[in-house]
Amino acid sequence: MTEATWQWDETLYAGSARHYSVGRMPYPPSLADAIGTALDLDGSGRLLDVGCGPGSLTLLVAPLFEAAVGVDADPDMLVEGRRRADDIGANNVEWRHLRAEALPADLGTFRVATFAQSFHWMDRPLVARRVREMLTPDGAWVHVGASTHRGPSDDETLPYPRPPWREINDLVASYLGPVRRAGQGLLPTGTPSGEQEIMREAGFTGPTRLEVGGGMVVERSVDEITSAVFSLSSSAPHLFADRLPAFEADLRGVLTSAARDGLFAERRREIAVVIWRP
Question: Average of pLDDT values for 130-152?
Fold first, then answer.
């Protein structure tokens, strides 16, 4: 697809923020350790987390810095991020409501900029150029990629059934149509690729690649899988409009029938870390 095919709008994740902490598997602590080791972080400098959502990565890596700024276009995500920060006593994080395209927004310079499952929603060439200008000479851009709403689909023995993702996707399609939804638009071929070319054209070198975690079996409840579905842009609550109660009832019916004692099991996916240097 070309980047002009789909246009961002503010409803992309409308209604999803409160489902993140329930439905998304958290990043493992080893992710922060790996980033800290790879970049020789010592508690100094500042972090910029772009498209921070509810702070899933921000709050994990903020202790590696003197200060952190989380930036997101969805105000509800920032409300959830502040709540989670208060819950754990994280007092070195500032939350800013703005689109990545509005950077630098007088935020200053940063030792590290992170993008966790967010860069593909942006005007990538523009954001890459602007963020590069915000990095210190020894700085780094860190892209974190993982499907934290679900595990891999390999056949293996697990202590509980896997969530019935195929049936879930079929149910979503029966309500929203066969083409993937995203905000007010459609993504018929998914999110765009070609990140390496964009980063190099913006003046970055690299990348260095790491893989972290993965393999651990986790138990997941019907409530958690329900929230996982609602945490996705392709099945965000607003997309169902007045059919939301009916969809949730049908979804919970599918999940309850497939679960054993109300539980599923999945393995955590490996977290891909891609580091670029300005």
Answer: 93
- Report, as an integer, the average pLDDT of 248-261: 98
Q: Is residue 117 part of a domain?
A: yes
pLDDT above 70: percentage of residues in the chain: 98
If DSSP codes are grouped into helix, strand and coil, which group holds residue 212?
strand
Domain span including residue 253: 17-277
Q: Are 191 and 234 in contact (CB under 8 A)?
A: no
Average pLDDT in the chain:
94
Alpha helical stretches, state H, the chain: 17-23, 29-39, 58-61, 75-88, 124-134, 165-176, 195-201, 222-230, 244-258
Structure tokens at 181: 């939804």
Alpha carbons 112 and 114: distance in angstroms, whole number: 6
* Confidence tier at 6 by pLDDT (50, 70, 90): confident
Q: Can you tell me which residue has the tokens 């393995």?
A: 267
For residue 166, give the 3-state DSSP assignment: helix
Instruction: Tell me the C-alpha distance between 10 and 233, whole Å.
Output: 11
Residues 82-98, mean pLDDT to the nearest whole number? 96
CB 145 within 8 A of CB 274: yes
Q: Are 143 and 214 in contact (CB under 8 A)?
A: no
Could you tell me if residue 10 is inside a domain? no
pLDDT for the residue numbered 3: 41
Radius of gyration, CA atoms only, the chain: 19
Beta carbons of 214 and 270 less than 8 angstroms apart:
yes
What's 207's domain CATH number?
3.40.50.150
For the chain, how many structural domains are there in total?
1
